[in-house]
Automatic annotation (TrEMBL):
It comes from Acetobacter pasteurianus NBRC 3278. Coiled coil: none annotated. GO terms for molecular function: endonuclease activity; nucleic acid binding; zinc ion binding. Keywords: Endonuclease, Hydrolase, Nuclease. The lineage of its organism: Bacteria, Pseudomonadati, Pseudomonadota, Alphaproteobacteria, Acetobacterales. This is Endonuclease. The keyword Nuclease applies.
Length: 248
């Protein structure tokens, strides 16, 4: 950790840019005044986020840094970009803008969930653990790394997965993919029996540290279908995956 306290500030994450976009929208195009309390609050929150991961420094997400990020976001705003001749650079900013700028409710809901995750200390170890939780070919959700991590931790909790499988087995007598019907036991015999993955269906913005996973929140999916949900942003819902399967 000590080595991370020196050197350049870490690049802004998707989570942070979502929080910055929320502030940008709250300001409704007005430029924050010197010492603006909302800018200070965001700066303090992001500092907590990074301090927990061993990053320090007077320039780390200070108020000026937050304002610069607001300026960067202006470059994606059609109301300003052309007028000011601003060049839109950052790919993640563009993606966050495209996903959330037109849907204030989704933006505030997601930002709220991210703030709760930071307050709950859910950021600890997120930097490396995030990548460890992603399977090859999977991408971080539009909602950012913290909520992605929360999603994966939930659907990989062995106890709830076993309870879900037992429940389906008892009711249906077999474990089949809810999207395509694939049955590992049928295809691979004894080796495949009891094998299936669980996907957590709750929208990521509804996940908090204290949310209890119910059996109905989980869908049984084969590895291929599950991977396809997480392979691109935005992640698909189960319904969208089923439609996609019908269309090809
Ligand atoms: Zn499937
Ligand atoms: Zn999943």
């Amino acid at each position: 950790m000590a080595s991370e306290t020196t050197g350049r500030n870490p690049p802004w994450t998707r989570d942070e840019i979502i929080l910055a976009l929320e502030l940008y929208k709250q300001l409704k195009g007005a430029w924050p005044r010197e010492g603006d309390s909302k800018v200070r609050a965001l700066s303090e929150m992001l500092n907590r986020f990074w301090h927990a991961q061993g990053h320090e420094g007077s320039t780390l997400r200070n108020e000026n840094g937050v304002k610069m990020k607001l300026m960067n976001l202006r470059a994606h705003d059609p109301l300003y970009a052309a007028k000011a001749g601003l060049k839109a650079g950052n790919r993640i900013e563009r993606e966050v803008w495209d996903s959330f700028a037109g849907d204030f409710e989704r933006l505030t809901g997601t930002a709220h969930a991210i703030r709760c995750a930071i307050d709950a200390g859910f950021n600890l170890g997120v930097k490396t653990a995030d990548r460890e939780l992603l399977e090859p070919g999977e991408v971080e959700a539009s909602e950012g790394g913290l909520l992605t991590r929360m999603h994966h931790l939930r659907e990989r909790s062995h106890k709830i997965i076993q309870t879900k499988k037992n429940d389906v087995l008892r009711r249906k007598g077999r474990l089949a993919c809810e999207a395509c019907g694939f049955d590992f036991g049928e295809k691979y015999g004894v080796r495949g029996e009891g094998f299936i993955e669980c996907h957590h269906m709750k929208p990521l913005a509804d996940l908090t540290e204290t949310t209890i996973t119910k059996l109905g929140d989980l869908a049984l999916l084969c590895a291929n279908c599950h991977r396809m949900i997480h392979a691109q942003r935005p992640w698909l819902t189960l319904e969208e995956l089923v439609v996609l399967l019908k269309d090809v």
